[in-house]
């Protein structure tokens, strides 16, 4: 999702839509077979494994997985420093604020 959503002739699949017949589907269409892997979005937080595997891995629900991911991001993320010009503007604003108080 962070990359955005591609809108093109390939992703719109208009030709495949026109080839579909009422009551039919798209699964056997060449377009589907060529594009199915890139057309799916699989968020990391959702566990799509079978129940027995999920139990073996600790029965972690989505809230617990989201919490763990958020904690990992907070622990590992490094914020790049502000440009020197931005630091200077902030310092000037703080000085002006201190004078007006």
Structural overview:
The protein has 101 residues and is mainly alpha-helical. The protein folds into two domains: 1-41, no CATH class; 45-101, no CATH class. It is 57% helix and 0% strand. It has six helices and no strands. The longest helix is centred in the C-terminal third of the chain and has 17 residues, at 84-100. The protein is flat and about 75 Å long.
Low-confidence stretches: none
Global outline = flat
Query: What's the story with the biggest beta sheet?
Result: none
Percent range for β-strand residues = under 5%
> What's the structural domain tally?
2
- Calculate the mean pLDDT score and round it: 89
SSE succession: HHHHHH
Terminal Cα span: 45 Å
Structural class: mainly alpha
- Helical content, roughly? 55-70%
Regarding quaternary structure, what we see is single chain
CA radius of gyration is: 25 Å
The count of strands amounts to: 0
What is the count of helical runs?
Answer: 6
Q: What is this structure's SSE topology?
A:
Blueprint: H1 9-12, H2 14-19, H3 30-39, H4 51-56, H5 62-76, H6 84-100
Name a few traits of the molecule.
101 residues, 2 domains, mainly alpha
């Amino acid at each position: 999702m962070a990359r955005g959503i591609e809108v093109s002739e390939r992703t719109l699949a208009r030709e495949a839509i026109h080839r579909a017949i009422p009551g039919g589907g798209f699964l056997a269409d060449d377009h589907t077979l060529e594009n199915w892997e890139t057309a799916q979005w699989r968020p990391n937080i959702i566990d799509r494994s079978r129940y027995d595997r999920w139990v073996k891995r600790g029965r972690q629900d989505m809230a617990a997985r989201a919490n763990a991911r958020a904690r990992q991001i907070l622990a590992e993320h490094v914020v790049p420093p502000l440009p020197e010009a931005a630091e200077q503007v902030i310092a000037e604003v703080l000085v002006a604020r201190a004078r007006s108080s």
